[in-house]
Specification:
Length: 162
């Protein structure tokens, strides 16, 4: 019976659109690839942190901000929840999404000459990572099977957006 309910719940929810992770950003450029390479390089520095709950410390001059936002979803049945998801999804440039992850990378540097060579004197890097996911308002009033289905759905959506 749960599989039937799960199928009807997902049938009411348009699929998450896969594509360029920068599609939610205004104005993408080649610096996105450079930023991603920089982030990978920074995250690979230092000892491995398997299973750590705290994020790794960042080098001096690097700031990271994680923003989580949500939109309300109401209902106590698969059909009501699916309808609410369809009506309240995030809309960007005429397309709608159940969840969205976007990031902005900016940097500022100062340079000067020393010993007839140009050197970077300071470097400031800022990363803002923002995720928008649905927030189910009527969880406490719903049947436990529907709650389990929601938790499964939201877990998959969160994993996709992260």
């Amino acid at each position: 019976m749960t599989a039937v309910h799960r199928a009807s719940f997902f049938a009411m929810t348009p699929p998450t659109r896969y594509g360029d992770p920068r599609s939610a950003q205004a104005g993408s450029s080649g610096r996105g690839a450079a930023g991603l390479a920089l982030l990978l390089a920074l995250s690979s520095c230092g000892p491995a942190r398997h299973g750590a709950s705290a994020p790794p410390s960042l080098p001096s001059g690097v700031r990271a901000e994680v923003v989580e936002r949500s939109y309300p979803v109401r209902g106590t049945t698969h059909r009501e929840i699916g309808r609410s998801l369809a009506e309240n999804r995030v809309s960007i440039a005429g397309r709608s999404f159940a969840g969205v992850h976007s990031w902005r990378l900016s940097w500022r540097y100062r340079y000067g000459s020393a010993a007839s060579a140009c050197r970077i004197r300071s470097l400031d890097i800022r990363l803002v990572s923002e995720t928008v996911l649905p927030r189910w308002e009527d969880r406490g009033r719903a049947d436990s099977a529907i709650v389990a289905d929601w938790d499964h759905y939201l877990g998959l959506l969160r994993a996709h957006e992260n």
